[in-house]
Specification:
Umud Fragment, subunit A; rod-shaped; 7 strands; about 300 residues; alpha+beta; 2 domains
Length: about 300
């Protein structure tokens, strides 16, 4: 028995490791699919007119911010961000109050509602100048894409900033949706690829469907195995019960047979004894009286001699 246990132990351990690996792969697939789904849903808001509250993710669609600006160029900004290109992923903190707009500084990259080819869309550009709006108590923001910045070599920094302001467009604080707080390069390309319905279907929906089918199959298999095991256990218990009953019945039969045999022998012995006693009594009664007397006389004669 000990040898069988040792031989089965590696197989059981291997099966356990395989189950853990399969479970880990399933969890990773589910996490990846859920993450991609969330990013695709959120990233699809990149051309809508409003951002959601809190932190938003947006995929960059154009090259208007693909310039040479570094974080150090605007180190005084509340959220220094270097230039970025189409396909990058932006994290945008929404804002809607005058107190929040007051925290913005020159160099911050903001997302606002602007006009593109006659339609209102979200635009993300850098602030190059800020003015107070005395009429409303708010602010006026001058924004410019990094790709449109002046690159004249003989400009002084002051002249370059002045040129950038001349190139910029102004927007009132009511148009500002949020400020860019972080970026991840090229990740947006992945999201954009998954936003294609065919890509999303075969890369997310189909794997999840197959995983669901596999887990349903495994669940059914486990339920059936548990039922079979239960039936086998019940059958085993019933068989053991039958064996025990048969053993008890056989024991009782043997005991009864032995008891009957003892009784039979006792009766036979008793009958034989009674028969012997009857036969002895019968012999004594059958002897003639003369024979008895003669025998007695012979005995007396022998005594006299």
């Amino acid at each position: 028995m000990g040898k069988v246990k040792k031989e089965n132990q590696p197989e059981s351990r291997t099966k356990k490791i395989v189950n853990i690996v399969v479970m880990a792969i399933e969890v990773l697939i589910i996490i990846a699919c859920i993450t991609l789904s969330i990013m695709v849903i959120i990233g699809s808001k990149s051309t809508t007119e409003e951002l959601g509250s809190g932190l938003n993710m947006t995929v960059v669609l154009t090259e208007s911010m693909n310039g040479s600006v570094e974080k150090s160029d605007y180190s005084d900004a509340s959220h220094p961000i270097s230039s970025f290109a189409a396909g990058d992923l932006l994290f945008i903190k929404s804002m809607s109050t005058n107190e929040e707009y007051a925290t913005l500084k020159v160099g911050d990259v903001v997302t606002y509602v602007g006009n593109v080819a006659g339609t209102s869309q979200l635009i993300t550009h850098r602030i190059v100048k800020i003015e107070e709006n005395e009429a409303t108590g708010g602010y006026v923001f001058y924004t410019l894409g990094d790709a449109e910045r002046a690159t004249v070599s003989y400009y002084t920094p002051e002249q370059q900033e002045e040129d950038n302001i001349q190139r910029s467009k102004k927007y009132y604080s009511e148009s500002i949706q949020g400020v860019v707080v972080a970026k991840v390069s090229k990740v947006g390309n992945v999201i954009a690829w998954f936003q294609d319905s065919n890509h999303f279907l075969w890369s997310v929906v189909v794997p999840l469907a197959l995983l669901l089918v596999y887990n349903v199959y495994e669940l059914i298999r486990m339920i059936m195995a548990a039922r079979i095991k239960k039936i086998e256990q019940k059958s085993k218990e019933e068989l053991e019960s039958i064996k025990l009953s048969m053993a008890q019945s056989a024991a009782q039969t043997v005991d009864s047979s032995i008891e009957e045999e003892i009784k039979r022998k006792a009766i036979e012995e008793y009958l034989a004894k009674m028969a012997a006693q009857s036969a002895a009594a019968a012999n004594v009664e059958d002897k003639p009286v003369d024979a008895v007397v003669t025998k007695s006389e012979e005995i007396d004669e022998k005594k006299e001699e």
